[in-house]
């Protein structure tokens, strides 16, 4: 067995596990019930994720994790998103966790050691559009505000970037520390997005020194973009499947509407978009493996966001008026696709990165 | 009552704004939810008292007799100033349908009660199995003595929670071609057998409902345009609505919102983004020119035909694209539910984006309108 075979075996295993969880536990009545609630996910389901070790997939072996690859996590999340069930893995087990991994300090590893069993759930405290928040440290106390903390409602610890002349340091703050207040705003899919105020918070633990924090955040963001791209591919696959099923069963003018060529061509166009997104998401992971994480992430997240958005809009339209109701599931998927495509940058944001990196001339 | 059509467009626009500012309660304007009758009745009555409730009806029946160009201004200002439309089916459709197809008794009985608000109408056309294929409807009205007895289900009925009357397309003859066995019947909803169940939309609005009919009764005299002639009445009625499917007020307002979001997000300094906004704005304005050309024809007394489908497709799809651009510009804030703070101000691009899905579906999907254009205008076979 080659390394590649072993990799593919693990990916298949996680994909199958995700599929089993979705098959057994899919319940969109629950999805609807959980909207505008905190933490915004089913805690018993997430307890199952912990049992299966999924929070530790991207925690390195040195810190007691499974030490698996981004491609493994991507396969897992892609499967779970078909049932809108991956929360809070992306913000916690990918973004927050990977920020700690790249911080690469003993303090960070001490937290990482408790991620696998779910005891520590780190969330990276950012502003909208991945901007670093305005947080200052004086006399060992943190003060400032972080407007857009994905996974904030699920977190035990906030990983707070603090900018200084020397760079960006990362501090870990327990969410129940005195001086931490968190309110929730609702994303398009009505899952929570934390807004955190830090008012003279003492006891913050330095997990990345000022010369390392910015790079740790940037790398964790790009890694999460690759996983989010896979999530968007999962959504796209599911929306396409639902739509094709509907075109086969909805009858008007005494025939299935899927027999109309105009609609067939629309469906085929969406299928083509999905196929391109599947390929680009995989290519992004491949580039990352070859050391080109930044490019891989922007290609994958940009394409997957564009494809999922288009498929979502057209899928709703192809369902007709029923698609416009809250009762039908396609709207849940559309809003999830909007949420995940805007999170960490959509197609337009990634085109800009592409231009800024000078790649258009290459 | 002034002669509205004699005014210049500018004068009429001013008069419309003045009327709204003077009489529409501020708490009803720019509401996130469609106001219910109990909250909005005061505005309905004021519109009626001042003669602004029925823009298309003849003056003799209490209307404004607005020509299309003026009606467009009326609609634009209504939308721009965030004025709610309250149970519009009576003034918008029932009045014109009766004036064109009703008996004298029906006109005298029903029109004044629309103006007074005593009769509040909703429309019972679509069914779960009859959307694009409306003529495939299955709600049935059998005749018993001097009454219709109606059984079936309607869906996408706006305002059904507050209406007390519904006009229904029902099958009255199953033995003939499907368009030929349908009647247009006026039904009092205040009777056992009517069940109204609200439908929540993706935007969490509840303006739509399902209406169920279980042995619901209406006198035979409530048929409009004659027994089994309902399809013709319905088509003529869709005609009144149809021209406004081509009106660009949604997309114009969306362009304004997009420009606001562009400024709020600082993208107005990016020439590429400004160019894309300009492209969309010009598209909206050019479609508005096409609408105005059609309105001119109607103003000259010419009837309009299938070309309104061109505007319907162009308008609704352009509107949707403007909202997609909004969401794109807004970045992560574009995927927030509800009003979102951009720092210098707030906007709600997601709500507009989600709403923009609907006009491509209701009043005939853009695919149905393309079919109409392909066959009726381009003369393609099939």
Q: Which term fits the overall shape of chain A? A: globular
CATH C-level class of the largest domain in chain B: Mainly Alpha
Estimate the helix proportion of chain B, in percent: 40-55%
Strand order of the largest sheet of chain A: 1-4-5-8
Oligomer: heterodimer
Question: How would you summarize what this structure contains?
Answer:
The complex is a heterodimer of chains A (about 350) and B (about 375). With about 350 residues, chain A is α+β, with helices and mostly antiparallel strands.
Structure description:
The complex is a heterodimer of chains A (362) and B (382). In chain A, the strands form three sheets. Chain A has a four-stranded mixed β-sheet with strand order 1-4-5-8. Chain A is globular and about 75 Å long. In chain A, strand 4 (157-164) and strand 5 form a beta hairpin. In chain A, helix 5 runs antiparallel to helix 7 (213-249), helix 7 (213-249) packs antiparallel against helix 10 and helix 9 packs antiparallel against helix 10 (330-342). Chain A has 362 residues and is α+β, with helices and mostly antiparallel strands. The mean pLDDT of chain A is 97. Chain A folds into three domains: 3-112, Butyryl-Coa Dehydrogenase, subunit A, domain 1; 122-209, Butyryl-CoA Dehydrogenase, subunit A, domain 2 (Beta Barrel), CATH 2.40.110.10; 215-361, Butyryl-CoA Dehydrogenase, subunit A, domain 3. Chain A has helices at 3-25, 28-33, 43-51, 70-81, 89-103, 106-112, 213-249, 261-289, 293-318, 330-342, 347-356, and strands spanning 122-124, 134-138, 141-150, 157-164, 167-174, 180-186, 192-201, 205-208, 251-252, 255-256. The longest helix of chain B is centred in the last third of the chain and has 29 residues, at 271-299. In chain B, the strands form three sheets. Chain B has a four-stranded mixed β-sheet. With 382 residues, chain B is α+β, with helices and mostly antiparallel strands. In chain B, strand 9 and strand 10 (346-347) form a beta hairpin. Chain B has three domains: 4-86, no CATH class; 121-228, Butyryl-CoA Dehydrogenase, subunit A, domain 2 (Beta Barrel); 246-377, Butyryl-CoA Dehydrogenase, subunit A, domain 3, CATH 1.20.140.10. Classes of the chains: A alpha+beta (362), B alpha+beta (382). At the A-B interface, strand 9, helix 9, helix 10 and helix 11 of A face helix 9 and helix 11 of B.
